[in-house]
Write a structure and sequence with these properties.
Dienelactn_hydro; globular; AB_hydrolase_fold; Dienelactone hydrolase family protein; hydrolase; 2 domains; transmembrane helix
């Protein structure tokens, strides 16, 4: 069963990250599982569930939350989800970057977790220019694949600039991203220079090692032991950062899958690894964007 599960996750990852069509996914899963019905059960267990309960209640009285637009430059705005402690005066800011499904309820939940960690959090919708994140996650992935990546990076840097000038803030801004968002963390770190205070990437494919010299922000990188696709770029990236004298800490969580932090995916989520990575993440962010 373990081998079947691992192979099923590999097939699903190929679908989500290589933009295969659903018919191919269903055919390969049915071959693996023995029937279309069994394939659908496998897919449901691996895919993120929109119906999964939030860890932090959106109405949590400790927080102030809202969703709306914000300006990132002349004539340029984005939609985002905001979460902050009731008293966020003097708090550092953190941008939460979504996976390739866009700004989902799960990512809004992660933003609330960041806020409970003591930060002013915003989770931008990087599909804002394309009408916003659709409810259909496959449609969202298609839109992510068509996004202008240079424009996405520019929007992220614009958000950082906005966060650093936030009234009652402390002038510091970090970022945290997952999967597609983890990849974006690395690329923003390359492009933003000293404008970025700190970055945390969860299982994000990395840039070319030659780009490491451009990074100025401290980085915390989380990798999944079974995630060979991302490890192929993550290892060389980490070594290049170290060789360039950059402030980088990388952890590999053995025996877990890509997206192990996503508690809405029954088969991928690993509670122990997620809790440890989160503890390290919040401590890292406090060490670099407090005061």
């Amino acid at each position: 069963m373990s081998d079947l599960r691992d192979r099923a996750i590999q097939i699903y990852d190929a679908f989500t990250h290589e933009h295969r069509d659903r018919r191919t996914l269903l055919r390969e899963m049915a071959t693996l599982a023995g029937s279309v019905a069994a394939a659908e059960v496998l897919i449901a267990g691996i895919a993120a569930s929109p119906a999964a309960a939030a860890i932090i209640d959106p109405a949590d009285p400790r927080l102030v939350t809202r969703k709306g637009s914000y300006d990132i430059g002349p004539g340029k705005s984005m939609t985002g989800y905001f979460a902050a402690p009731r008293d966020a005066r003097g708090a550092g800011a953190v941008m939460v970057i979504h996976e390739n499904r866009g700004l989902t309820p799960h990512i809004e939940d992660v933003a609330r977790r960041v806020a409970l960690g003591g930060f002013y959090a915003v989770a931008p919708d990087f599909l804002s220019d394309q009408g916003g994140t659709p409810a259909d996650e496959n449609a969202a992935r298609d839109l992510i694949g068509k996004a202008n990546y240079d424009a996405v990076i520019a929007s992220a840097i614009g958000t950082i600039a906005r966060l650093k000038t936030r009234e009652n803030g402390n002038g510091k801004a970090g970022i945290i991203g997952f999967c597609w968002g983890g990849a974006l963390v690395n690329r923003v770190a390359v492009a933003a220079g000293d404008a970025l205070s700190a970055g945390v990437a969860y299982y994000g494919p990395a840039p070319a090692p030659e780009e490491a010299a451009k990074v100025q922000a401290p980085l915390l990188l989380h990798y999944a032991g079974k995630d060979t696709r991302v490890a192929a770029t993550g290892g060389p990236w980490t070594e290049a950062l170290k060789a360039a004298g950059k402030d980088v800490t990388a952890y590999t969580y053995e025996g877990v899958d890509h997206a192990f932090n996503n508690d809405t995916s029954k088969e991928r989520y690993n509670e122990a690894a997620a809790a440890l990575a989160w503890e390290r993440t919040i401590a890292f962010l406090h060490s670099h964007i407090d005061g």
